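Dear colleague,

Thank you for sharing your sequence with our group. We've completed the structure prediction you requested, and as agreed, I am returning the results in plain text so they can be pasted directly into your records. Please verify that the sequence below matches your submission; if there's any discrepancy, let me know and we will rerun it promptly.
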Amino acid sequence: MDDYKIPPQTRIGHVHLKVSDLNRSLAFYQDLLGFELTTMYGDQAAFLSAGGYHHHIGLNTWHSKGQPPAQPHAVGLYHTAIVYPTRKDLAMVLNRLRDARYPLTGASDHGVSEALYLNDPDGNGVELYWDRPKELWPAKEDGSLEMYTRPLDLASLLQEADDDE
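Please find the predicted C-alpha cells below.
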C-alpha cells in the first residue's frame, strides 16, 4: 500500500437520514435547531442548510415512512455531529433546547471540544458541539492529542449565552 493521505481540505459534505415522519423531523432540524429549508422533493424528502449551502442535512421517507426507530444496539449511524462556530453559539442552542424542554442524553467536555448529546425524533443520535482553538487542545508528553470525556459545566455554558445580552 502506498502512503496516500486524503487532502487536508477534504470535508464531510452532508448527512442524509431516513426518517419516519418528515414533518416531525423538520420541526426538530428546522424549527428547533434552526437549519434553513433549501428544497423539498414532494412530501417525501427535504434538504436543509446552514448559511445557504445546498444542503448539510437530507431527510427522506423513501424507505422509512411510518417505521419505528432504528434499534439502539444495531449496526448503523452512531450520531450526526454538528459543529457550531463559537461557544456562545452552542450556549444559544442549549437555551433553545431548554426552552423547548427537549431532553439531552449527555453533555461532555472532551478537551478539544464541548458537546451536547440528544436524539432526534427518530432516535438518531445528534451531537452539537464547538471546537476549542487548536492551540488549546490538550496534548500528551509525546505531542499526540489527549481527548477525554468529562462532565460539561452546563451552568458555565449557559452563562456564555447570557453574556453581552
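Summary note from our side: The mean pLDDT is 94.

Kind regards,
the structure core
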